[in-house]
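User: I'm writing a tutorial on reading structure tokens. Could you give me a worked example: one chain, its sequence, then its tokens, then a sentence or two explaining what the tokens reveal?
Assistant: Sure. Here is the example chain.
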Amino acid sequence: MKAILITLFALVLSACSSPNIELYKSNKPEFILSEFFNGELSAHGVLKNRSGEVIRYFNARLKGSWVEGKGTLEEWFVFDDGEEQQRVWKLVPNDRGSYDATANDVNGTAEAKFAGNALFMKYELQVPYDGDIISVMVDDRMYLVDKNVVINESVMSKFGVDVGYITLTIVKKSQD
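And here are its predicted structure tokens:
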């Protein structure tokens, strides 16, 4: 009986685990950060509460630049209620074949892992909430669907409980 319970527990835990980035390694087009996040981009998305109800939507202007393999991604968000936020990511290649990513409203350093057309990143974000600032964990999953479009899905959690979801599309402006 004990072996059955342990097996069931292991199955439940594995069902809750998220997919490994390596599952996408043969997917095309290949997501190369310094190519996609270079120049002018725009983002358009929705924020859902833990029940899946859309509670906010936003548009953003992004600008990426690279110097000697290190990237800067500036983001300017405008929400439907007029709130504005700015985030500046710094992306530095590391010896693990990924990037260390930091931002003005992120605690610590995130690791941006990529394989094939996918980019995964987890980090602790400082979010304005009800007149205060709270920390939430963000699990970002980005998928390059063509050379000019990324679909991004994010799960936000607090104390291991999902509290919100973000879905957005990032579009690279034509360099013509």
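What the tokens reveal: The longest helix spans residues 2-16. The CA atoms of residues 64 and 73 lie 4 Å apart.
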